[in-house]
User: Fold this.
Amino acid sequence: MKIAVLSGKGGTGKTFVSVNLATVAKTSTYIDCDVEEPNGHLFFKPEKIQEEEITVQIPKVDNELCNGCRKCADFCNFNALAYIKNKLIVFEDVCHSCGGCSLVCPEKH
Ligand code: SF4
Ligand code: SF4
Assistant:
């Protein structure tokens, strides 16, 4: 059986539910896919930790091509784009790397 605990804002108890389900199961594999705060390890205290560097794609604006239509900024659910003073600004910290802004861009950049 595979159980995925996901969605919900921070503090709703996803980790709490997950670590307890994994604990009460006879055998279990706990996979923490939380990209911001993967802190299930705080409860399990694993000894062999393997780390791997992960990268994400952040949109980059080509101001030569941008026509200022704002379709990308309207699309972005995370308010990671703003068109200010004839320039598109990318707020990298809130971008979720969904790639949708590139798809809706009529200039395809
Ligand atoms: S990649 Fe997604 S989250 Fe990031 S700026 Fe584009 S639409 Fe917004
Ligand atoms: S959708 Fe493309 S052309 Fe329109 S504002 Fe965004 S980057 Fe510029």
